[in-house]
Amino acid sequence: MNKPKLKIAFYWAASCGGCEIAVLDLNEKIFDIIHLADIVFWPVAMDIKYKDIEALPDKHIDITFFNGSIRNSEQEHIANLFRAKSKILVAFGSCAHEGSIPGLANLASKTEIFQQVYLADKSNINPNAVTPKPETHVKEGTLKLPEFYDTVKTLGQTVDVDYYLPGCPPPVKLIVHAINLIASNNLPPKGTIIAPQKALCDECPRKRDNKKIDKIYRIHEKVPEPEKCLLEQGIICMGPATRGGCDALCLKVDMPCTGCGGKVPNVPEQGAAMIAALASILGYDGMDGKPYTEKELEEVIDQVKDPVGTFYMYSLPASILKRKVIKK
After folding, report:
1. Does 302 share its domain with 215?
2. 93: domain CATH number?
């Protein structure tokens, strides 16, 4: 008797859609998935309605791969819906895992975002200063939009998550590994991040000499030496604070890690870990053995043009900071 196929669902919340493309990047391996499972919900590829999922019994879906952070009420509703309908819920990709790029909107309030996007931007023609509202009444009836939230949240801050698959997007080998674990019923403990328990630096082929630096460069300001650690060349690379699993693909083409794998194990948050790593290589003693003056320290710090966007690009909602304080 043939073993019944698994039922798998994919959903796309506040994200760019790259995680959906990563599924297609499985190439011929996708046929292995089709052999193991039926895809019951995948809006990017199938015409299925929310009502079809709402009609399913609870725990009917074996695995839901949910990508994207939670930006509005529709996404929150669907997160709760798939939590109820799924035996296993996987936070799929950086946005679901730690908030990622959409989470940088936590540097502003809903009011500030609407002001910029719909009113202040010079490309707008909006003489009546109209901004989106959850409900608008017209003669034909009531038009509804999802409520736009002040704060972007991770999937795990919204519903109970079983497993996390990091990356922007998750590397193909991690996706295949996760599916194989589920298909073989060889699951790790609940809450596991399905990625190696090591820092990206352990995968990086570049040579490290533990040299200190006195200047920080943006990536366009310096042509890096091809075999030397980028951080030791003064280019901020998030490798020391980022979990591995991607085979250091960016580093192999002279691009620094920006941190999409999430924080390394056993640290409270990624941004603070990277700031500590950078502080150690800058060194309090300076390049000539003399302590930095206060002015010199300020000059070094000022070289980091966008601290939050650099150290918390993928992790602001999941960090200790979470967001900028909203003043009422």
Report:
1. yes
2. 3.40.50.700
Domain shared by 134 and 277, yes or no: no
- The burial of 42, by beta-carbon neighbours within 10 Å (0-12 exposed, 13-18 middle, 19 or more buried), is given as middle
- Listed residue (273, 111, 66, 149) closest to 257, CA to CA: 273
Sheet bearing 86-92, strands edge to edge: 37-41, 6-12, 61-67, 86-92, 163-165
**Residue 88 shares a structural domain with residue 223:** no
pTM above 0.85, yes or no: yes
Q: Which domain holds residue 283?
A: 200-311
DSSP string, 273-321: HHHHHHHHHH-TT-TTSSPPPHHHHHHHHHT-S-HHHHHSTTTTTTSSS
156 and 249 share a domain?
no
pLDDT tens per residue across span 21-61: 888 877 777 777 777 888 899 988 888 899 999 999 999 99
